[in-house]
Sequence to fold (210 residues):
Amino acid sequence: MLKSLTSVSLALVLATATPLMAQETAEQPASEDTTTEATEGSADQLLDLGTPTDQALRIGQRYSKEKFGDWDLACVRTESGEDPCSLLQVLLDEEGGAVAEVSMFRIEQANGGQAVAGATVIAPLETLLPAGLTISVDGAPGKRYNFSFCNPAGCIAQIGLTEADINAFKQGKQAIFSLRPAPSPDKVVSVPMSLNGFTTGYNAVDVVKQ
Fold:
């Protein structure tokens, strides 16, 4: 479908451009230079020359700077140009619908803290908050984390990850995020998080100073 649409669109552009170019050429002296100028001028009016992406972004807008397997290095545009970045993955259900979002960053260790990384997990509204969020890797025993609050975007869990947690992600193939919906508290919803590209992406992400 895309190939057919592209062919039709290109044909329409060329069909529209040809009479305009011929008309401009006929009105001017038939020299090689003026014909070239008329052709270039008409093409510029008909074709989108594009806008550099770094100029099109607004302050505060998030964009994907680089891909690492199934992860995005997601950055936020700032006035200074020093855009903070985190490692991002949107978790999908079996039908391809977005269920949750994981945004991860490294933490500079200080004062004997155990957390070497932090993550913000956004789960759907109507998540059963007291049940928390459980994360396990490749079938190993999981860890349970509490939700902090909910807003219109969803329910937020701000979690700390130890060196052992990060090593499990680096060595694993898939993590499972499990939660319970408030309307059906007896039901467990499990969503996979791919670890493809995690190690390379984690090494590239920003370190946040405490």
